[in-house]
Specification:
The complex is a heterodimer of chains A (221) and B (227).
Chain A (H helix, E strand, L loop, with lengths): L1 E3 L3 H12 L8 E3 L9 H6 L7 E4 L2 E4 L1 H11 L12 H30 L7 H23 L14 H15 L4 H4 L1 H10 L3 H5 L19
Parallel strand pairs in A: 1-2
Antiparallel strand pairs in A: 3-4
Helix pairs in contact in A: 1-3, 1-6, 4-5, 4-6, 5-8
Chain B lengths: L4 E5 L4 H12 L6 E4 L10 H6 L7 E4 L2 E4 L1 H11 L12 H13 L1 H17 L7 H25 L12 H15 L9 H11 L2 H6 L17
Parallel strand pairs in B: 1-2
Antiparallel strand pairs in B: 1-3, 3-4
Helix pairs in contact in B: 1-3, 1-7, 4-7, 5-6, 6-8
Chain lengths: 221, 227
Amino acid sequence: LYWGSGSVPCWRPMICLEEKGLSGYNSKLVSFEKKEHKSDEIMTLNPRGQVPTFKHGDVVVNESMAICLYLENTFKNQGTKLLPDDPAQLGLVLQRMIETQNIMEKNNALVYYKYLTKREEWDEGFIAEKKKALAEELPLWEKYLAQYGEGSNIAGQDFTMADVCLVPALAFLVRMQLPLKERFPLLASYYERVKERPSVKAAWPPHWKDTTGPDHLKDVF
Amino acid sequence: MASDITLYWGSGSPFAMRAMMSLEEKGLSGYTSKQITFDKNEHKSDEYLKLNPRGQVPTFKHGDVIVNESLAICLYLERTFKGQGTTLIPDEAGQQALVLQRAVESDNIQSKAFVNMVYYFFTTKAEDRDEALLEEKAKAVREELQIWEGYLAKQGDGSYIAGKDFTLADITLFPFLATLVRMGLRLEGRFPHLASYHEKLKERPSVKASWPPHWKGTTGPGWLNVV
């Protein structure tokens, strides 16, 4: 797996690999600053020059959720069962899994803008609009957790593909200093708990370990 | 069973079309079809929001199971009705990998063509549209379409997007393509493979059964002529 530190799409397949008992994979960290994601090695496997880029023997799979689905199908009988058999459970896990894209779309709209635009050129109207969208997204997830109560995962008691997809997104928001604890107690305790899960720890962005992130989401509310 | 299934959909939503195509391909044509009208704000009614708090289409029900998000619906149908209808996700590793990748990859079309471009037309009055900005957006769409043209070219004439067989990857791609063409995108000449792919799939039974009713006999806005 070719991956970049701090990239949410990379983090998901990394958690997946750990959960499926495939920790011994070849881990190829690339530097975005040095444009290593545009290297010949990666471009041959992924003409979009993006990470994650994934290889299993001769099989290449790009796109974070595609890799996760491939892993669950191919290694169905080992490690954690990430997609349940029960139809009701399955339906919910698949929905929440895809639904996490809403978080990233709203996060990216705001964070990328702040990251790419000079502070003195920030359009306050645009930022207010994007803050509002993200502020309205999180209560949905707090409500989803409330359905199962304290100590549960996002789609029920078990850790599933829905959590694989949610955890990196949530962690990214927290990294950007979104004040989770103050407003969303269930999301906050979920976050504190899943942070300690071995697969999540193993995939934690290396450069986040002893540093604080930029405060792009500090004032979302 | 099809009779246990209800799909709430909106005419012209490519996401709804994906769900409808999947149902048809899995031999579940007899599902209960509930068309939602955006003009009457039916997607924001209390009753609807109970099923889908985001107030979006499609919304899918199978007995007591509710699934929203078009790709989630497609994946659910393929897993739950695996033994019937068209195989939408092949078992062979290499094939499956390609199908899954292309299926998720279609998100690029969503962001560049729909979110970045079509949405601009919806939300900006004609007199306020900036030509230079439009050309920038059009360029991004062209480049993205070129990628998909390349994928089809590589598979060879008459093929589907991920090989010889129709799969989930076609279900996620075709509705986007059809909607862009509806909005004035011209494929002939510059995107010959996409053009013939579009012509071929238009005739597929599952596509015909899922064709937006209000498109029949009318032309759409020529917004994407500029692409």
